[in-house]
Write a structure and sequence with these properties.
Mean pLDDT: 92
Structural class: mainly alpha
Helix content: over 70%
Number of strands: 0
Largest sheet: none
Distance between the termini: 43 Å
Number of helices: 7
């Protein structure tokens, strides 16, 4: 079953179980998926859905940080609950050792030797890793390996 179909089914299940946070979170994600389908007139792939989920996760993390700074613990808890729901649909994140080995392979395959080749490495890394690691984490590891 595709991620999109799984999300649709889980929305129905959340509605039946009266889980409002899960229902609302999945509806927001479904709206972002529908936006791509309408704007680009194509069906979304699992990779597209993962990208949407990563973007949604990043937004939740940013909002959580702002709410924490403002002392709004009720909203921090809400963001935590939404992030927990989204994490269930994302693939297991890479640990540092696995990320480093994949990046070393990418660096070797593109022939990167210095920081000037960072763009080539990042492009290859995003293709190889996908949504299993955050772009910021990839960037830091590439900088460490190229310097």
């Amino acid at each position: 079953m595709s991620l999109n179909a799984q999300i649709k089914n889980d929305i129905k299940d959340a509605m039946r179980a009266k889980e409002t946070v899960k229902r609302d979170t999945l509806r927001n994600i479904q709206a972002a998926i529908k936006q791509i389908e309408v704007d680009e007139r194509r069906d979304v792939t699992d990779a597209d859905v993962e990208a949407i989920l990563m973007k949604y996760m990043k937004q939740r993390e940013d909002a959580k940080a702002q709410f924490a700074d403002a002392g709004r613990n009720d909203l921090v808890e809400k963001e935590d609950a939404e992030m927990t729901i989204v994490k269930a649909y994302l693939p297991k994140p890479m640990d540092d050792a696995e990320l480093e080995s994949v990046l070393k392979e990418v660096i070797a395959s593109v022939g990167a030797e210095s920081m000037k080749d960072m763009g080539k490495v990042m492009g290859g890394a995003k293709a190889a890793i996908g949504s299993r690691a955050d772009g910021g984490r990839i960037n830091q590891m590439v900088k460490k390996l190229l310097s």
